[in-house]
Amino acid sequence: MKAALGVKIYAPGLDKAIAGARVYVAENEEEESYFKDLCMDDLQTLKRFAVGQKGKGVYVQASTLGALEALLTFLQTSKIPVHDFGVGPVFAKTIRAHAAMAEKAPEYACVLAFDVNIEKDAKEFAAKEGLKIFAGK
What's the CATH number where 8 sits? Predict the structure, then answer.
């Protein structure tokens, strides 16, 4: 089976899973711990690849890991710095985490949201803090 087939998986605890991430099957707690470390390594590698070291940049939010990777690659080739990123809906806490950018580097005071829901309170908080949300599907 290939990941591109888009197989849906139903299981308890999937609300904490990252869409598009690799799927591992652990037989015991030791394997579970090992696979968690592998998943974290994937995210850390992506962070090293995409996030600028100067503390300035846009915030990127996407629906899946694959969409996030594509967007981060596009931004990198376009020389647009990324401050941080996430997967899933845009919540007010997402905006709070990036709000300081409005003062630090106003040109990057925005959230690029691809194929995600933007919660009402996040929109309101962004407007209040002077952050723009650019959303696309």
Answer: 3.40.50.10050
Residue linked to tokens 């003062």? 103
Contact 27, 53 (CB under 8 A): no
Q: State pTM to two decimals.
A: 0.71
Model confidence over 37-63: pLDDT tens digits? 877 776 777 676 667 667 789 999 998
What values do phi and psi take at 58, rounded to 5?
Answer: -85, 165
Give the number of residues written for the chain.
137
Query: Which structural domain range is residue 46 located in?
Result: 3-136
Q: How many domains does the chain have?
A: 1
Buried b (16+ CB within 10 A) or exposed e, 74-86: ebeeeeebbbbbb
